[in-house]
Design brief:
Length: about 450
């Protein structure tokens, strides 16, 4: 696939590196020549110095042969205009990163589609939604729905007292006969493991589980999280877009305390938040956080612009006994380390954007996708085509590539956890866990 990325670092460069690894033809357009030189020296891709709002620059990037045009700069107006120009110059599909969530309303979506912007992604809004989902779900440190909630992915850390520690995956199904779930992956010491029946679960494992939503209590019992209490009091540090979106969603159901160092920003959010206590203060001042009741909180969320501040403040919250901690970490190199030292959930805007964009990249009818924190693997939901190769034989004969596994099947309103003898049917929706290098091969089975 020919992909053009207009980006000024961070998200754009992360996408460029990730998609190059998947053997796509990548061209990066950016006004910063020094950054592009470094990117080109480290990756097999083409770079062009210039503005993505220049028709000549887009023509030099061969936009007329572009299958996917991604505009992910910090300035949403530049992204939107770049997509409009790219579409006029015959790009097949365009995606713009935005920061104003109001543009995601159906009315505005339709208006921008008419102008040439096919899709819009707001990482900050998605991040806030992930945070609210996690706080409403007391069992998981990561959470994702497929097919409107018919199947759910949970990420759960196995603590020392977890009943399943030192048991095999097969023994888990024997010990908990009523548990309808499947372990699709394990993150262990920074390595991704796709489990087999005889894989032994270990203390500290981060376990990815696919299950029906009504299995939450069974999952709690099996993993030793049955004592998790409802979240009622939350402290949020950082009143940027992620923090304010999260507070706006949560304040009607929970007691929210919002810390923000900028007085101007405090005044801005005060007009938006009606039931939130807003405090103008420095999040690195732990004594101030303690004075405002940090140790009495059920959850602590750090979403400032500094990954280091977010990680350190979450560690302090953990040390003071806060049960749930969530940190916004922009440096992907920090993710595994942050998980290893005990932070419950990591939010990363690069992964969020990549998850949204993935379904436009793989062949086949990909409906939803989720790049998993701490690993380069991906969960993807495929809609099975009428003549797909996967419909012609049972799963045992599909030759699923090593590095992939089927987590579940949605058939109408019915959910199935397939065996080797299960036959996939046209119009099924199949949730697959796979490493990036085999995702295209997997996708061909369902298209």
């Amino acid at each position: 696939m020919n992909i053009i990325i207009a980006g000024d670092g961070e998200v754009g460069f992360y996408l460029a590196k990730s998609l190059t690894d998947l053997n796509h033809n990548i061209t990066v357009v950016d006004p910063n020549s020094e950054l592009l030189k470094r990117l080109e020296s480290e990756n097999d891709l083409l770079t062009i110095v210039g503005s993505s709002m220049s028709p000549q620059v887009l023509a030099d990037a061969n936009v007329s042969d572009c299958d996917l045009f991604l505009a992910v700069l910090h300035d949403e107006s530049v992204n939107l205009m770049s997509c409009v120009l790219a579409k006029k110059l015959k790009a097949k599909k365009t995606v713009a990163r935005i920061t104003n969530a109001e543009l995601l309303t159906p009315k505005h979506r339709d208006m921008f589609r008419d102008l040439g912007v096919d899709e819009m992604v707001c990482p900050e809004r998605i991040a806030a939604k992930e945070i609210t989902n996690l706080l409403n779900n007391s069992v998981a440190t990561e959470f994702f729905d497929f097919s409107g909630g018919l199947l759910t992915m949970y990420l759960i850390r196995l603590e020392p007292d977890s009943p399943v520690v030192q048991h095999s995956v097969q023994e888990l199904t024997q010990l908990y006969t009523k548990l309808e779930a499947r372990i699709v992956a394990i993150l262990r010491n920074g390595m991704t493991v796709i489990p087999h029946a005889d894989t032994i679960l270990q203390q500290g494992d981060l376990v990815y589980i696919i299950s029906r939503p009504n299995q939450v209590e069974s999952i709690k019992q099996a993993t030793g999280n049955s004592q998790q209490a409802e979240v009622k009091k939350v402290m949020i540090v950082g009143a940027g877009r992620v923090g304010r979106y999260a507070a706006m969603t949560l304040e009607d159901r929970m007691r929210i305390t919002l810390f923000e160092e900028s007085r101007t920003r405090c005044e801005e959010v005060a007009s938006l938040l009606k039931n939130t206590l807003i405090i103008n203060g420095d999040a690195t001042d732990i004594e101030l956080l303690k004075d405002e009741g940090l140790q009495n909180m059920d959850a602590f969320i750090a979403v400032t612009n500094s990954s280091e501040t977010n990680v350190l403040s979450c560690l302090h919250a953990k040390r003071l006994g806060v049960r749930r901690t969530i940190a916004l970490v922009e440096n992907t190199g920090f993710i595994s380390i942050s998980q290893d030292i005990g932070i419950d959930t990591i939010i990363n805007k690069k992964l969020i954007t990549a998850s949204y964009i993935s379904r436009f990249i793989v062949k086949g009818d990909a409906v939803r996708s989720k790049w998993l924190s701490g690993t380069n693997a991906e969960l993807m939901e495929f809609s099975v085509g009428k003549w797909a190769p996967a419909t012609r034989k049972p799963i045992r004969d599909l030759d699923l590539p090593q590095g992939s596994t089927i987590g579940g099947i949605i058939r109408g309103q019915q959910t199935l956890f397939p065996t080797r003898d299960t036959e996939i049917k046209a119009k099924d929706r199949v949730v697959v866990f796979a490493l990036p290098k085999v995702m295209e091969q997997v996708a061909r089975l369902f298209s």
